Structure formats: C-alpha cells, structure tokens
Amino acid sequence: MTAEMTGADILIQALNDLGVEVVFGYPGGAVLPIYDALFKQNRIRHILVRHEAGAVHAAEGYARSTGKPGVVLVTSGPGATNAVTGIADALLDSIPLVVLTGQVGTPLIGSDAFQECDTVGITRHCTKHNYLVKDPAQLGDVIHEAFHIATSGRPGPVVVDLPKDVQVASALYRKPSVQALPHKGYRPQVKADPALIEEAVAMIAAAERPILYTGGGVINSGPLASQVLRELARVTGAPVTSTLMGLGAFPASSGQWLGMLGMHGTYEANMAMNKADLIVCLGARFDDRVTGRLDAFAPHSKKIHVDIDRSSINKIVRADIGIVGDVGRAMEDMVKIWKAGQHQARNLAPWFEQIDGWRARKSLKFPASTKEIMPQLAIRKLWEATHALKPIITTEVGQHQMWAAQHFDFEGPNKWLTSGGLGTMGYGLPAAIGAQLGNPNALVIDIAGEASIQMNIQELGTATQYRLPVKVFILNNEYMGMVRQWQDLTYAGRYSQSYSDALPDFVKLAEAYGWKGVLIEKPEELEAGIAAMLEHDGPVIVDCRVAKLANCFPMIPSGAAHTDMILEADEVVGEMDDEAKALV
Amino acid sequence: MHIKQEATERHTLSVTVDNESGILARIAGLFSARGYNIDSLTVADVTEDEKISRITIVTTGTPQVIEQVVAQLDRMVPVHKVTDLTALAPHVERELALVKVVGTGDHRIEALRLAEVYRARVVDATISSFIFEVTGGTEKIDKFLELMREVGLIEVARTGVAAIGRGKEAL
C-alpha cells in the first residue's frame, strides 16, 4: 500500500506525473507548504516573477510558444487577485493555464482572515473552470482534471484554490486515468460530423469567390493544423485571411495570403470578406474587431463555421453550416473528402483579379520621412534583420501591436504572442520571458510601446535573474498612441490624458537592471541599433523614438462597414455621433 | 442615443448538473455575466445517489439569445445535459405557491370559495387567516394571486417552475 503524503507533496507529485517542467510564481503565507515541497525537489523549475500579473502572462507566453499548458503558483488574497487579469486574458484568447492559488485554512474561510479573498467566486467567470479543494484525498484527481480541462476542447485557464490546511494534511495519491476524473459530463466534441464536412466541401467546390477566414483555433489545434490549412488552401485555391490571433498559421509569403482582416486589417482582406460568396471560418469567432458593423458584414456570402466551442457558432453571425469539432481534424477531413471526391476548384482567376485590384490600393503603405522614424518602417527593418532567425514576437497592446501585426510577416505558428481578446497592456514583457524559457535558443522580441511596457516593467528583473536574453523593442512616441488616435477620430483631437509624461530614461533603466540599453533617434540609426540589439548576448531594451503623431491605418472606424475603411491618405480628425462613440 | 430592444420569447430549460458546491452560483452567474434573464430557477437533486441535480430555468430572450443560453450552459464543465423543453416537445410545467390571506366576514368566505375553484388546499387556518397551497402553471397561479389580492392577501411564497416533457421518453 502506498504511504500517505501531504497535500503539498501530492501536488508536486501530480505536477510531475503531468510532465510539468516550469512553474511561474510568487510565494506568500498561504502557499508556504507548497514552496517548501518545491524546495525539496529538483524536477520542477520555479521561476520567481516580480508581480503575480507577470507570472500569469509569462505562463501564457510559455503556453502559446510551446503548446504546453502554463502553470502558475501564487498565494491567497492579493496573490490571487493580482493574477485575475492574466486569467481573464487567457480565457478570451483560449490559452491553456493551470493557476494554483493558496487559500487560508478551511476553518478560516469566510471569516475575513488575513489575505483571504473568495478566489473561486472572483475567478468563476474568468476561468474555464475552477475548484476549491477541501479534502486532500481529492487533490490528485482535481489537479489531473484541471490539466485535462485546461488543455482539451477549447483551451482555457483553470484555477485550483488550495487551503493551507489541505496542503499540510495527509492523504493517499494515485494517478487517475482520464476516464476516472470527477466530471463525467465534460466530453468536448473533437471529431466533426462527416455529413456536415461533405456538405461544406461541396459548398467550397461550388463557390466562385471563396475565402478562408482563420483564427487562433488553428494555432491552438497544434502545428499539424497549420500544415493542413496550407493543404486545404492548396487544393481549394482559395485566398486566406486571418484574425490577429491566427497570424502565422498561414505563411505571409504565399500568393494566396491577403493579410490580417478586421479593424486594422488590409484593404484586400476586408474587401474580399465583403464581396465573397462563401466564407469558411476556421477556428475564429467573428469578434467585433473583425466584423465591424454587423448588418453590413459580408452580406453576399454563405458562411461555414468550424469551431470546437459550440457556443461560438451563431453567437454573432449566423452560419449556414455550423461544424463543431477540432478545426485541425475538420480541415483534415475536408482535404480527404475533397481529394476522394476528386473535386476541382472552380476557376478562381476572376476572383483573384478582383483581389489584385484591391491589393493595388497598397493599404499598408505609409508616408516616408527622413527626419522622423516611421514606426511602420522600424517594424519592417526589425523584420528584415531577424526573419531568417524565425523569432518569437510578443507585443503589448496598442498602435505598436497593430503595426507589428501588419508589418511583421510570419511564416509559421506559435511565433506571434499577443493579447487579442482582452487587450492587456503589460502582456508582452512577461510573455516574452515565458516564451524564452520554453524556447531557450529562440530569438524572442517584445515589440512594445512606451506606455504599455511600464505596466509590467518590474519583470525586467526576472529576465536578469534567469539570464534570459529577451529583447524589448519600444516604439516610443510619447503617447498612448491608440487612445490618441481614437481621440483624433472620435473626439476632434482632444487628447485627454493620453500623453506619456515623465517617461523614464529607458537606456538607464535597462542598465539599472543589468540589461543593455540602445537608443535609436534617427532613421539612419535604425539598422545599426537593431544590429546592436541582436549582437548582445543578453537582454536588451531598445528605445526607438518614432514619429509622435503617426496613426495606424488602414482602419475601419467604430460602427462602419468593411467597405468604409479609412486609408492613410484620408482626413481623419473629426467628431463622431453618439452611436459610433458607444460602439467602443 | 437610445438602447435598442428586440422581441423576446419565454423558454423553459431543463439542466442536469453535477451536484457540487457552487454550482448554483455558476449557473446564476452565467446569466448575469452574459446579460441573460432568469424568470424562475429551481434546483434539487433528483438521483438516488444525490450526485445529479436538475435545474429548471425559465428565461426570456430573442431566439438567438435562447440558442446562446443553451450553448453556454452546455459547455460548463459540471453540466451534463441542457434541454430546451419549450423547443423540444409538449411538456408539463408546475409551480407551487403558499398564499397567506387575512380577513373576516365576506372576504374570508370569498377567499375560501375562490380557493376551491382553483383547487387550493388550506394548510393553516386561524380565526382571521388562511394559508392556501396552490399548484399549477405560472399563469394559473398569477391569476389566483390576482384574485386573492382582492380578498386580503398579505404574503406569498412561490417555488418557481418545475417542468418535465410529456410521453414515455425520459431526458
């Protein structure tokens, strides 16, 4: 008979059994037993962050770049509440995380004890599922189920709240099988209905103006799904666009690639969505940033929607065929049926001619300047200098994020880590740290803004401690640029609180943390500055001073249709009506 | 600017769930988080081993919202099965109300007579009050309460709707 173990040891044993290599965390009173158990072992590596928010984003970066679940360990009360933003971020972007939170001992729960908060209550709606474990005998099963739930179906964050007495008390632990897990009702549908796949393939074969609209689901399905997407695009000949979350699933160098769609997507991607006769949505969810004005969204098309989450189908846009299942496997089935049925794609040349007409608008063009560094140029130069190295790019949130999405071309999945759904400023630096830990030999660059980077700037110390050579490339325009841009468009240029005043000297800040600092002030310094960043075998901050008032185009303004894009040359300063203001 | 309103329908849903702590907060929270309506919600364990609870929810929304409510409930980890009884087939809906009526003389006699018409039982009586127990569909109970208000109603407790599909098939 196996001997009893403490709850803390059961946790460590379960994590080992689940193949966990890295835990991002921060100790505190309510997790001391777990930290002691961690101290006595050497299989799981603990990364000490500087703030719990950083721990969760680092775990997200680790998860997105490796495909493995990210694991977080924080204490009760403020430890848990500080983790909430990252948990909500992971829910909206479907990132597999298991967040272990300490809790006061079970007799103290509900007594307003020191560092007590209702963690399961607070995180109930920003997790895929959460648990409060009151019995150490159930701890092993709960940990195994937490990982199963986080990583299967539509991935997401799972919180396990662990009272301190449960960590200390003893119980038996036995590794459970998936079938033996407590929630029998949880059986996500992975295999799509073959009849619907047949129908979908027939529709694609019959379409004159088809478009594949792909999303983060393709990345989440695993690297194989990106390969199958390429094959599906090859056999059908259809053009491909992607959401922010799906970038990299399809190679930007392909002739069928239209670029990103949506609010800051390319003119050709949005026009093709508007004029298509068939939209094949693959692991995307018709987010409001993608659709623009709903009643004018893709009015002439039939829609096929493939999603592993049934609730995504018909949530925003009605699908003519809704297919529930893993998008990678569904695409595999589509390709098989396409080939078996000897389907021939229709002549899509007229469709691509039309697309070429939209491409000729060159919607990503930006004005040249010899005096100022155009932020788009900075991204392009960064891409030129690094793309051969297949870097992992993380971002913060704002203009720099959209410019990176537009001007940094990706050829493969798991290389683009950005906070899409929640739009969390401060995501990029910790995510880069997590990605670097999961990919020790990769070049990892956080493309940042001077405002966002300050939201988790404390994590510079984490990179220093673990000798992680991450690069932070700040497009410094001294504004919360996207806020300022919206104030131009919507509020007649009244820049309410959007100026980044009292900025630190980023080069000195870098040096204070043991990083290298590089300052780039003029266009002619760009290449040398980037080279200096790449040459340094350690973490680097680049403070790249860019044009202060550049706006991110193209853009579909609030409440507008895909056909009403604003391009670079258009006049933008003005005031919008209340309906448009209310549309965010 | 005005917020737009769309036409809504009333649907009765049956949801079977793992009988675990926090499940009701999870279900109710989903409704508030996503802006759905709960007209009535009842819950009790219904299996021999007390491991499964059955929740009956009456909700109103546009057809699209109702479809979302079902899908959102269905993807929750402790949820086994969601059935839209209104959409599925004919079904029986019942709720129970306890109604306290105070009065003497004509009001008291009228209250008793109306209770008989509605097949309400007297479960408690004093010289000046009755408590009636009445079961039926929501509309019947609403109507009964409307009448009792005329004859001295001072307090009501209602259970909310329990519902089950007609015929020999089980969910």
From TrEMBL, chain A:
The protein's annotated pathway: Amino-acid biosynthesis; L-valine biosynthesis; L-valine from pyruvate: step 1/4; Amino-acid biosynthesis; L-isoleucine biosynthesis; L-isoleucine from 2-oxobutanoate: step 1/4
Cofactor: thiamine diphosphate; Mg(2+)
Domain Thiamine pyrophosphate enzyme central residue range list: 197-333
A GO BP annotation: isoleucine biosynthetic process
Cross-referenced Gene3D superfamilies: 3.40.50.970, TPP-binding domain
GO MF, one example: flavin adenine dinucleotide binding
Any single Pfam family the record assigns to this protein: TPP_enzyme_M
Cofactor details (free text): Binds 1 thiamine pyrophosphate per subunit. Binds 1 Mg(2+) ion per subunit.
InterPro entries: Acetolactate_synth_lsu, AHAS_TPP, DHS-like_NAD/FAD-binding_dom, THDP-binding, Thiamin_PyroP_enz_cen_dom, Thiamin_PyroP_enz_TPP-bd_dom, TPP_enz, TPP_enzyme_TPP-bd
Domain Thiamine pyrophosphate enzyme N-terminal TPP-binding residue range list: 5-121
Catalytic activity: 2 pyruvate + H(+) = (2S)-2-acetolactate + CO2
Alphabetically ordered keywords of this record: Amino-acid biosynthesis, Branched-chain amino acid biosynthesis, FAD, Flavoprotein, Magnesium, Metal-binding, Thiamine pyrophosphate, Transferase
Thiamine pyrophosphate enzyme TPP-binding domain segment(s): 397-544
EC number: 2.2.1.6
A GO cellular component entry from the record: acetolactate synthase complex
Classification via SUPFAM superfamilies: DHS-like NAD/FAD-binding domain, Thiamin diphosphate-binding fold (THDP-binding)
Family in the record: Belongs to the TPP enzyme family.
NCBIfam families: acolac_lg, PRK09107.1
Official protein name in the record: Acetolactate synthase
Organism (species): Rhizorhabdus histidinilytica
Organism lineage string: Bacteria, Pseudomonadati, Pseudomonadota, Alphaproteobacteria, Sphingomonadales
Automatic annotation (TrEMBL), chain B:
PROSITE patterns: ACT
Gene3D superfamilies linked: 3.30.70.260, ACT-like. Chain A, domain 2
Pathway listed: Amino-acid biosynthesis; L-isoleucine biosynthesis; L-isoleucine from 2-oxobutanoate: step 1/4; Amino-acid biosynthesis; L-valine biosynthesis; L-valine from pyruvate: step 1/4
GO cellular component: cytosol
Enzyme nomenclature, EC number: 2.2.1.6
NCBIfam families: acolac_sm, PRK11895.1
Assembly: Dimer of large and small chains.
Protein function: Catalyzes the conversion of 2 pyruvate molecules into acetolactate in the first common step of the biosynthetic pathway of the branched-amino acids such as leucine, isoleucine, and valine.
Descriptive protein name: Acetolactate synthase small subunit
